[in-house]
Design brief:
Layout: E1 2-7, H1 18-35, E2 39-42, H2 57-66, E3 72-75, H3 85-98, E4 103-107, H4 113-118, H5 126-142, E5 146-149, E6 154-158, E7 172-175, H6 180-189, E8 192-195, H7 202-218, E9 228-236, H8 240-262, H9 279-284, H10 288-293, E10 298-300, H11 302-316, E11 320-324, H12 332-346
Parallel strand pairs: 1-2, 1-11, 2-3, 3-4, 4-7, 7-8, 8-9, 9-10, 9-11
Antiparallel strand pairs: 5-6
Helix pairs in contact: 1-12, 2-3, 3-5, 6-7, 11-12
């Protein structure tokens, strides 16, 4: 198993200013590099406390690249529906070169109705814009004299500069939430898959991974080369009661931030997001104890979290784990403790 840190902020100016937030996160990046973590990851969201301090993961990861030499840099994820593919492909290729080929390019569809409204993009175009954006970026990276005649963009022939450091292109991952067909498409195309197990029952996550891995094999991709990233909120302490109290507080804060961000699903329906209208109801049913019992959070002492991860490995295989250590707005000191305890006392159990 591999481990990394995912920066999903749930914070606003009333908590801390953006300068302090980025300074603390970049210090955590340096600590993660020192402790041997595999990757750092950054999300893309807007305006809400739910991710709003991370509107451009490429900018953050470029700063992370300047402070590190080894750790991989993952966009988790950029949203092609809101960016022209030439602009997006060029930004990511630039980051790939700045970092010496350490970029893993993760793409997502976006799922917040308000974000689509603010960008004046119809939410019913989500799937088609995502598919077109990812494929246009892939071709711009891998080919020269690209001529694109899509539904939403028409350009070329053009040859992108800079060319990616990694050839023919950086590793591509796609994010999925509730839609099994997204997992199948990722496997069929030979892309990595990013999931958040906290929002689905274990059996559904296993089914989605089964679909992904079957599609990967059926498409003839290299056996065992599939890549799965699973993101978990994480809070560790030497004392179990302290860990559970802190983890519960962070979980509740995350719940409140997400509740505000998804509120528009109470009045929005889209064939591109079947069942998403139920998110509002699910968010209102905050159940920290239940999530912890189901191993949908990584909370506890190093020994307890090691046990959780052994169960997760049994369920899902040797996946890559992304620890959301700032989600829920813990103190900087608590986030450092989580990163250090996990890196020093948990990760070594899975080094093989």
């Amino acid at each position: 198993m591999k481990f990394g840190i995912s920066f999903f902020p749930t914070v606003g100016p009333a908590d801390k200013d953006a300068y302090r937030h980025y300074a603390e996160c970049l210090a955590l990046v340096e600590l993660a590099e020192e402790l041997g973590y595999d990757h750092v990851k950054a999300v893309e969201h807007y305006f809400f406390e739910y991710g709003g301090y991370s509107p451009d993961p490429v900018t953050f990861l470029a700063a992370a690249a300047a402070r590190t030499s080894r750790i991989r840099l993952v966009t988790g994820a950029v949203l092609p529906a809101f960016t022209h593919p030439i602009k997006l492909a060029a930004k990511l290729a630039m980051l790939d070169n700045i970092s010496g080929g350490r970029l893993d390019a993760g793409f997502g569809r976006a799922f917040l109705p308000d974000e689509f409204a603010w960008f004046e993009v119809p939410i019913d175009e989500s799937r088609s814009r995502f598919d077109e954006g990812v494929e246009a970026c892939r071709r711009l990276w891998a080919e020269e004299d690209v001529e694109w005649r899509g539904t939403y963009h028409r350009f070329g022939p053009v040859t992108l500069l800079p060319r990616p450091f990694r050839q023919p292109h950086p590793p591509i991952l796609v994010a999925a939430a509730l839609t099994p067909s997204s997992c199948e498409a990722a496997g069929r195309n030979g892309y990595g898959l990013m999931l958040v197990p906290a929002i689905n029952p274990r059996e559904k996550v296993q089914d989605m991974l089964g679909l992904y891995r079957k599609a990967w094999a059926d498409a003839g991709h290299e056996p065992g080369a599939d890549v799965v990233h699973l993101s978990y909120n994480a809070y560790l302490a030497e004392d179990a009661d302290e860990a559970f109290a802190g983890g519960d507080a962070c979980s509740l804060r995350m719940n409140h931030a997400m509740r505000d961000a998804v509120a528009a699903w109470g009045r929005t329906r889209s064939d591109n997001y079947v069942g998403y209208e139920n998110i509002v109801k699910k968010i209102a049913q905050h159940d920290f104890a239940g999530a912890l019992a189901d191993n949908r959070l990584l909370v506890g002492t190093p020994e307890q979290v090691t046990g959780q991860l052994r169960a997760i490995r049994d369920w899902f295989g040797d996946v890559t784990i992304s620890l959301q250590v700032i989600t829920g707005n813990p103190s900087y000191e608590d986030a450092v403790r989580t990163v250090r305890l996990f890196g020093e006392q948990v990760a070594p159990h899975f080094a093989d």
